[in-house]
Amino acid sequence: MRRLLDTIYTAAGVLAAVFMIGVLVCISLSIAVRQLAMHIPGLDAYAGYCMAAAGFLALAHTLKKGEHIRVTLLLASLPQRGRMRMDAFALIAGSIIAANLAWFSCKLVLDSYAYNDISTGEDATPLWIPQLSMAFGTVIFFIALLDETISRLRGQPDSNNQETALHE
């Protein structure tokens, strides 16, 4: 199970990197065609879709690599047991928030599909398509937070937090 989850987190991170390249391609192409006095409808929108996809898909991978911003000043001042409890509390609260975000992201995709919602730009893209990356990203992020929460509740320390490791 551990290998499967880590593979999912890594795949989401790689996919986020691919979408970052998509942003670069869309913006570069937009600049190039503008210089040639041409126009490709929707390039700006597609760059935005790629940027949103990259952000949401990177959430779980970033969490598992210990790169999310954390306020560790309070945690560092607590004894080991208090630190573990505070960390578990923060992870539980984050999991609840992530569950809501995942739920409503998936609901948004289904609603956009059901109502045939399209973008207001020149491209008229069905919005459920770019919204899928947000839904996948938030669901994977929720799974990653749940994974971290369960690990912490089992008493496993956060291996990615160097500041915690320095105080032990």
Would you write up a description of this structure?
By secondary structure, the protein is mainly α. The chain has one domain. The protein has helices at residues 2-35, 43-64, 73-77, 80-114, 128-153, 162-167. Helix 1 runs antiparallel to helix 2, helix 1 (2-35) runs antiparallel to helix 5 and helix 4 runs antiparallel to helix 5. Mean pLDDT is 89; it is low at 162-168.
TL;DR of this structure?
Helices cover 76% and strands 0% of the residues. It has 168 residues and is mainly α.
Count of helical segments? 6
Structural class: mainly alpha
Mean pLDDT over the residues: 89
Number of domains: 1
Low-confidence stretches: 162-168
Give the SSE order as H and E letters: HHHHHH
End-to-end CA span:
29 Å
| Rg over alpha carbons | 20 Å
What's the story with the biggest beta sheet? Answer: none
Counted beta strands: 0
Tell me what portion of residues adopts beta-strand conformation: under 5%
What percent of residues adopt helix (DSSP H or I)? Answer: over 70%
| Multimerization status | single chain
Shape: elongated
